[in-house]
Automatic annotation (TrEMBL):
Record organism: Halteria grandinella
Entry protein name: indole-3-glycerol-phosphate synthase
InterPro entries the UniProt entry points to: Aldolase_TIM (IPR013785), Indole-3-glycerol_P_synth (IPR045186), Indole-3-glycerol_P_synth_dom (IPR013798), Indole-3-GlycerolPSynthase_CS (IPR001468), RibuloseP-bd_barrel (IPR011060)
Alphabetically ordered keywords of this record: Amino-acid biosynthesis, Aromatic amino acid biosynthesis, Decarboxylase, Lyase, Tryptophan biosynthesis
Enzyme Commission number(s) from the entry: 4.1.1.48
Amino acid sequence: MNVLDEIMQGVLLDLASRQVPINDLKQQIDLAPKLRGAKQSLSKAGTSLIAEIKRSSPSKGALSQITDPVALAKSYERGGADLISVLTEERRFNGKITDLIAVRDAIGLPVLRKDFILTEFQVYESRLLGADLILLIVAALSNAQLRDLYQLSTELGMDVLVEVHDEEEAQRAIDLKAEIIGVNSRNLKTLEVSASVFEELIPTIPSSVIRVAESGISTRADVVQAQKAGATAILVGESLVKSGDPISAMRELLGHGQAFAHDNS
Ligand SMILES: O=P(O)(O)OC[C@@H](O)[C@@H](O)c1c[nH]c2ccccc12
């Protein structure tokens, strides 16, 4: 079994333990938080930044002791992030649903629920939690599942980040007419990061699509490489949570240099 299969199995087990009738969720949908327009946030001129709250990863274990995810999210917001990603997968990423709720409450930016979304239940749950953007990983889903979960998410008003890692997956995302496609440089089955994935795949995605470069971005040169390939947004976790000074790290990545690094405005 590869890593992705193991993670998915764990997700389904955890889901079984908190499952309530899906109708209970459907009945509450009218009470869900107001959406913040994720797509709009990622559509500005220039490169958008999605900054991630990530405690741990299956490849590296604990990345940083995030004792106060809300404070980190506020730094991301202050440093100019366009959207905040919050990992909610517990077993391998030490993510927490409560982080998503607390972070969204404390900031004004849209939020991405970063998890392994495999069922309709999770889509309804995400909407009720206030996710503005939801991740669907092509490698984890059949075409029928992908289409159904995508359609349900958009019906509920959420935007969808459709994640791909190879040409075949990219084609499936394009065929779906996904409006936001993320190219993950990390292969979730082996956890290996390959620097050439952005250059190979991003140019195959139509320019009308928001193209997000994901994973392994830690230097300004990485960002420039993703931009050259055609990325319109970047998604960064590890290098920001480990930086100790996320605001400076973000400005460095975006090419705003060190001059503003200690501006507290
Ligand atoms: O920490 P990094 O290398 O900056 O990567 C962030 C993000 O791309 C990564 O967390 C990620 C991309 N796709 C995922 C799917 C599930 C969980 C996590 C991910």
